[in-house]
Structures are given as structure tokens and as C-alpha cells.
């Protein structure tokens, strides 16, 4: 177990030792701050019915930013080890494959959680500017909304780590991650808005996967365990696949 | 310490390592010798359980490298070819990370890292980024890494490749000093290195072992011919007279002014110098040079690794 934590610390260091990490954090905080400002100024003009996450994530497009962030922070994870050849150093130390895979996954996930943290400050500001609107104080709804965001982010990260385990070049890894995550976000959106699918059975299927729908639910404080099971099992699947790819790739390495 | 039985590695239809068996005892320094592509690195990668074997077994200190890989890995330090390192880490930071990964207890961390920094003479580079180090220093960081958990066995894959002569000397001396307490398996194609450092040599070619012995015995048992050079002012028929001496296989003659230069190819272990001197005295040949070239490890190596047997 110690090797897992040693490796986790190493992953976090390698993330935080690059300027990219700070640029991403600053960029994300700035973007969310801007969203927040737009939202508050809208509320100043007219009252509106809003959901809790609108406070910070007013513009639904933020979810695509998640896809980019996941690609950015995971693209190095395995691809770089294979490119540098350090994977040989790593895997001839007494370390289990699982520990390495999990460390890389959780390292990026922790970074993602840290990334989300500053946005919570918006609720505090919101509380002040609205003189204690109920929305700013519904801790349960805020927490459930963040749980969903975290799960969504971790799913994207598992996809990113998986993509990175497939290739030697980090740019390829990022492109694969972006393609898969954006497709995942886009399909339910396209089904609803472009294709106008109204068949309730089909609708039920794509709404099951639709992250935007999940966000609406969780922002109301509706913690739907089906969604949790979906995110955790999809994430688990990608982590599992990563382990298998990593393991078999190691076997083929010359 | 190392026991290898019928180890085979196939890449598709290509057999990189073909059923090799050997053993390395505790305290030995064994040179693993072979031309590029002979299967040295592949064998080492299997020993360090980085690559699985297609068939056969190998064990380190009694632990199977496939079934008890973690235990086997704990007991060895490995320096891969080209020393891959993280360029964005500092030397000290990297070694502490590696020590922790290899299970050095927290209480001994400072001591172990300090020891290997001193041993590999990189203490003054502790706070430098690995990416900014020269190749010689990187190699020493790699060695320090291999040593940091104080393993009984060191597996070094071409540790002096790409270094300048001074760096080679330092690294060699370092390895020699390490070997006093440890078992070392070192792969190389630099022959003087083997003669200087190794107690035994395993020659591998096209995936199979061609010889396994001390460098001395290899030279002694080498069946290729030696050569002797004689420069004398000899008369007619000298070549034939020389040819009749026991142990002489063949004589070629050339001239340098008045001097005849004879090149004699000899049978294995033949030492006809005395007979030749006797002949020269009998016939009153002035002699200005007589010397026998003995086979070098290079000859042995060339002979073992150029044939297709």
C-alpha cells in the first residue's frame, strides 16, 4: 500500500511541478468567475428561476471545459513514461501495476478536485450579494451538485488516463480523450436538440447517460443512486481497461 | 543468486533469446558479453521481470521472477540501458522517491540517500534538475538509484555506453568498488571492461550462450590460431625450414630491404619460439624481431560471435 501513496505523491508533484497546472487552475477560476458575474448581473435585471449550479456554472458550456481539462492533466500520465522509457525504471521497482494505475488516476482526480474548490467561493459571495438567499445556503444541494461534478470529472479523467496508456505521444492521448469525452457530451445533446427524438423509450436511454440532465437533477439536491452507479462503474471500467492495456503493453515493450 | 533455466523469448517468429541456462553465484561479477542484438538486454529485462519469458524459468535469490516478481525485484538494483530518468525531478528528490518506492523505511531514508549520493559522487548535484545533468552524471544517478535500497544483486545494462573515457573510468571504478559486497551481472560489448572487472564471462550470440568461463580460461582454451612474427636476414629455404617446426601451420614471407619478414600461423597453444631461435642460431641468421601475439579476448569474442554455428 505504501508504494501506492509514494507513487500518488509523485504523480501530484509531477502535475504541480508544471506551469500548466497553475495556468489551468487560473484559467478555470477566471472562467467560472466570469460566468458568476454574468449570472449575478442577469439576476439584477430580472428575477429568474435558477438551479443551484447556475450560480457558478451558469453557462452550460463549462462542461466542455471539463473535457479539455481532463485531456490536459491526463495526457502525460502514461504516454510520457513510455516516451522517456522511465516505465522500465518504474516497473522494475517492487511496485504492482495496480498501484501505478490507481496512483495516476487518483493523482489527476485530486488535481481536478482542487480545481473545483475555488468555485465554491462563489456561493459565499452569492450569499453576501443576495443577503442570504436560500439558494446560497442550501448546503445539501450544493454538495450534491459538486458530487456530480466530481464524478463526471473522474469519469473524464479515467478516459484520459486510458487514452494515455494507449499511445506514446501525449498529443495523441489528448486528442483521443477530447474525442471520446466530447462525443459523450454531444450525443445526448444532439439527440435532443438536433434530431428531435421524441420516442420516450429512446429518450429514456439517452437521458440516462446525459450529464446535463444529471446536473439538473443533482442541482436540485436529488441524489439519484442510479447516476452514481453509472459514473462509478463507467470510471471503474476505464481504470480497469487502463490496467489491462498497461499490463499488456509492458509485456510487449522491447 | 541468479538461476536461469531454459529461458526463451520470442517476438513473433523471431527468437531473441533461445533457451539459455546459466547461474550466477553470490559475490560473482559476471560480464554478459555479446554483440548488439545478441539478446543481452532482453535477458536482463526478463531477469528484472520487466518482460515475461516465452518459456523457461529464472529466479533471483530463490524467488521466481515471474511468480514472485515483487520479492525478486526487492532484491535487485537495475540500471537499464540509456538510464531513463525523469528530467523534471531534482537528483535528491528522485532518489528519495525511488528509495520510498523500493521500500526503504522512512527512518533510514536520509542515511541511504546520503550514502548513495556520496558513493556515486553526486552529493554536490543533489539539488540540480536531472534534465540539466550531463550523461556521465545521469549514469551515476541511475547507479545511485539501483543501489539506494542496498540490494544484494546489481543488474547493469551497458553502464558505460555513451560516456567519455574519463567518465567510463569513474563509472568502472565505482562498479568495481560496489562489487565487493554484491553480486553483479553487467552487460557490455567493451572487452577491456570485462577483463578488468569480471570474474566470469558469459558470451551470448544470436540468443544462445556460446561460452561461460573466466576471461583467462577463455583465452587459454581458445582454439583459434596464434601468430608469430620473425624478422631475420635468412637465406633460401628459410620458409620451408620454419614450416617444418612443430606447431607451425603456415608461413608467409615478405621483404623489407635485406630483411625477411615471416608471419607464422600457429596451432593452438603452440610456443615454437625456442625452436625458431635454435634454427636461427644454427643457420646464423641475424634476428631483429621475434614475437608471438597471443589471442586476445577480442579474438575470442570475434570467433565466438561471428560464426553462425
Quick structural summary:
The complex is a heterodimer of chains A (about 250) and B (about 300). Chain A has about 250 residues and is mostly helical.
Q: Top keywords for this entry?
A:
heterodimer; A: 254 residues; mainly alpha; 14 helices; 81% helix; globular; B: 309 residues; alpha/beta; Rossmann fold; Alpha-Beta Plaits; 2 domains; six-stranded mixed β-sheet; four-stranded antiparallel β-sheet; 14 strands; 34% helix
CATH architecture of the largest domain in chain B: 3-Layer(aba) Sandwich
| CATH class (first level) name of the largest domain in chain B | Alpha Beta
* Count of DSSP H/I helices of chain A: 14
* Beta-strand segment tally of chain A: 0
Number of helices of chain B: 11
Spatial ordering of strands, largest sheet of chain B: 6-7-8-3-9-10
Order of helices and strands of chain B: EEEHEEHEHHHEHEHEEHEHEEHEH
- The outline of chain A comes out as globular
> Whole-Å distance between the termini of chain B?
30 Å
In percent, how helical is the residue content of chain A? over 70%
Q: State the low-pLDDT regions of chain A, or none.
A: none
Strand content of chain A: under 5%
Structural category of chain A is mainly alpha
Taking the alpha carbons of the first and last residues of chain A, their distance comes to 29 Å
Largest sheet of chain B: 6 strands, mixed
* Amount of beta strand of chain B: 25-35%
Give the C-alpha Rg of chain B. 25 Å
The CATH superfamily of the largest domain in chain B is P-loop containing nucleotide triphosphate hydrolases
Amino acid at each position: 500500500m505504501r508504494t501506492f501513496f509514494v507513487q500518488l505523491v509523485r504523480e501530484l508533484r509531477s502535475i504541480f511541478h508544471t506551469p500548466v497546472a497553475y495556468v489551468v487552475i487560473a484559467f478555470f477560476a477566471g472562467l467560472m468567475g466570469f460566468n458568476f458575474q454574468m449570472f449575478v448581473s442577469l439576476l439584477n435585471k430580472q428575477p429568474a428561476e435558477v438551479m443551484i449550479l447556475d450560480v457558478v456554472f451558469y453557462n452550460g458550456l463549462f462542461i466542455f471545459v471539463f473535457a479539455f481539462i481532463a485531456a490536459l492533466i491526463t495526457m502525460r500520465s502514461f504516454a510520457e513514461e513510455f516516451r522517456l522509457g522511465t516505465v522500465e525504471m518504474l516497473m522494475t521497482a517492487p511496485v504492482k501495476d495496480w498501484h501505478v494505475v490507481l496512483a495516476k488516476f487518483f493523482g489527476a482526480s485530486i488535481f481536478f478536485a482542487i480545481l473545483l474548490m475555488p468555485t465554491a467561493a462563489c456561493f459565499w459571495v452569492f450569499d453576501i450579494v443576495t443577503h442570504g438567499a436560500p439558494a446560497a445556503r442550501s448546503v445539501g444541494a450544493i454538495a450534491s451538485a459538486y458530487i456530480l461534478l466530481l464524478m463526471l470529472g473522474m469519469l473524464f479523467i479515467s478516459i484520459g488516463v486510458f487514452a494515455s496508456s494507449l499511445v506514446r505521444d501525449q498529443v495523441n492521448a489528448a486528442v483521443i480523450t477530447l474525442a471520446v469525452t466530447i462525443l459523450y457530451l454531444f450525443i445526448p445533446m444532439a439527440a435532443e436538440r438536433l434530431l428531435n427524438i421524441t420516442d420516450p423509450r429512446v429518450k429514456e436511454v439517452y437521458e440516462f447517460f446525459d450529464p446535463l440532465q444529471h446536473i439538473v437533477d443533482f442541482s436540485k439536491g436529488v441524489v439519484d443512486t442510479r447516476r452514481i452507479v453509472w459514473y462509478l462503474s463507467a470510471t471503474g471500467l476505464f481504470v480497469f481497461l487502463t490496467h489491462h492495456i498497461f499490463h499488456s503493453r509492458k509485456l510487449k515493450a522491447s | 543468486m541468479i538461476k536461469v533455466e531454459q529461458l526463451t523469448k520470442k517476438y513473433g517468429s523471431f527468437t531473441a533469446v533461445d533457451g539459455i541456462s546459466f547461474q550466477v553465484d553470490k559475490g560473482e561479477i559476471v560480464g554478459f558479453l555479446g554483440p548488439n542484438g545478441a539478446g543481452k538486454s532482453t535477458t536482463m529485462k526478463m531477469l528484472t521481470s520487466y518482460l515475461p519469458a516465452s518459456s523457461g524459468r529464472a529466479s533471483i535469490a530463490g524467488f521466481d521472477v515471474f511468480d514472485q516478481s515483487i520479492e525478486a525485484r526487492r532484491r535487485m538494483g537495475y540500471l537499464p540501458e540509456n538510464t531513463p530518468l525523469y528530467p523534471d525531478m531534482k537528483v535528491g528528490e528522485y532518489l528519495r522517491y525511488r528509495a520510498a518506492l523500493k521500500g526503504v523505511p522512512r527512518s533510514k531514508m536520509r542515511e541511504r540517500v546520503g550514502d548513495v549520493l556520496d558513493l556515486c559522487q553526486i552529493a554536490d548535484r543533489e539539488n540540480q534538475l536531472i534534465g540539466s545533468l550531463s550523461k556521465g552524471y545521469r549514469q551515476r544517478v541511475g547507479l545511485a538509484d539501483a543501489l539506494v535500497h542496498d540490494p544484494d544483486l546489481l543488474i547493469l545494462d551497458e553502464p558505460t555506453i555513451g560516456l567519455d573515457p574519463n567518465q567510463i573510468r569513474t563509472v568502472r571504478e565505482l562498479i568495481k568498488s560496489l562489487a565487493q559486497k554484491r553480486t553483479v551481472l553487467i552487460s557490455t560489448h567493451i572487452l577491456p571492461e570485462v577483463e578488468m572487472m569480471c570474474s566470469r564471462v558469459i558470451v551470448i550470440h544470436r540468443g544462445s550462450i556460446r561460452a561461460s568461463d573466466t576471461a583467462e580460461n577463455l583465452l587459454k582454451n581458445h582454439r583459434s590460431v596464434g601468430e608469430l612474427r620473425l624478422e631475420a636476414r635468412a637465406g633460401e629455404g628459410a620458409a620451408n625450414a620454419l614450416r617444418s617446426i612443430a606447431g607451425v601451420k603456415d608461413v608467409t614471407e615478405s621483404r623489407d630491404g635485406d630483411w625477411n619478414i615471416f608471419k607464422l600461423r600457429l596451432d593452438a597453444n603452440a610456443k615454437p619460439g625456442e625452436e625458431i631461435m635454435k634454427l636461427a642460431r644454427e643457420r646464423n641468421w641475424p634476428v631483429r624481431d621475434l614475437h608471438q601475439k597471443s589471442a586476445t579476448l577480442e579474438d575470442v569474442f570475434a570467433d565466438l560471435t561471428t560464426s553462425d554455428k
